[in-house]
């Protein structure tokens, strides 16, 4: 029983000393180099703060926008980290109180309040403003440039196909012409020339002892 009382006394002295040191140090200080940030959809943002406290602080981030207020996460540096389900895949907590938020959405625009609480229950708040822009202009510009590029490529392909079709038609016509010329230009074989039989003469196969036919070019 005596040891138990001594332990309680030691704990009480330690808490008193820690509380006194925090009070002497001004308890808590929060500093941020940038309190207003502007990002675009799908970008990442780093909410940079620097929390100073001689005690082990409890850090909590809260999102506020209009009538909406929700807790993002709570942690103690080196002790535990508790990020809510809605932000668990997009939030990174840091020991100095900073927070990273990834893959921004339009509904992420609003006020982000950090609340730092020391061991005595004293707390201090600071807010940061985040504006999230849509990328409609960039999207429209990208789509217009892509459409112009695709239209140019389509026009070039149509021109190439037209030239190939024209060349193909000319080759086919040239071949047909050559075939017609070959059918109309006939010449007698050697044996027919020997017996003086010519294509313009009316003759039959029995007039040639070799029974040859006319040959073609």
UniProtKB/TrEMBL annotation:
The keyword Transport does not apply. Residues 1-25 form the signal peptide. The chain crosses the membrane at residues 142-164. Keywords: Membrane, Signal, Transmembrane, Transmembrane helix. Gene3D superfamilies: Immunoglobulins. It comes from Takifugu rubripes (Japanese pufferfish). This is Immunoglobulin subtype domain-containing protein. The keyword Signal applies. SUPFAM superfamilies: Immunoglobulin. It comes from the Eukaryota.
């Amino acid at each position: 029983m005596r040891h138990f009382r001594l332990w309680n006394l030691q704990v009480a002295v330690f808490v008193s000393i820690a509380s006194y040191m925090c009070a002497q140090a001004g308890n808590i200080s929060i500093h941020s180099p940038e309190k207003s940030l502007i990002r675009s959809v799908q970008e990442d943002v780093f909410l940079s703060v620097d929390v100073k406290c001689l005690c082990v602080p409890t850090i909590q981030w809260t999102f506020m926008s209009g009538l909406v207020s929700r807790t993002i996460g709570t942690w103690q540096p080196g002790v535990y980290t508790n990020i809510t389900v809605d932000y668990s895949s997009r939030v990174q907590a840091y020991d100095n109180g900073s927070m990273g938020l990834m893959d921004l959405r339009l509904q992420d625009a609003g006020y982000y309040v950090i609340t730092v609480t020391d061991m005595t229950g004293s707390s201090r708040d600071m807010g940061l403003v985040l504006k999230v822009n849509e990328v409609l202009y960039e999207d429209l510009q990208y789509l217009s440039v892509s459409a112009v590029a695709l239209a140019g490529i389509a026009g070039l392909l149509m021109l190439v196909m037209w030239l190939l079709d024209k060349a193909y038609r000319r080759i086919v016509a040239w071949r047909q012409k050559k075939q017609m010329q070959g059918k109309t230009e006939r010449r007698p074989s050697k044996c027919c020339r020997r017996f003086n039989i010519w294509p313009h003469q009316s003759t039959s196969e029995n007039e040639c002892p070799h029974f040859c036919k006319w040959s073609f070019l």
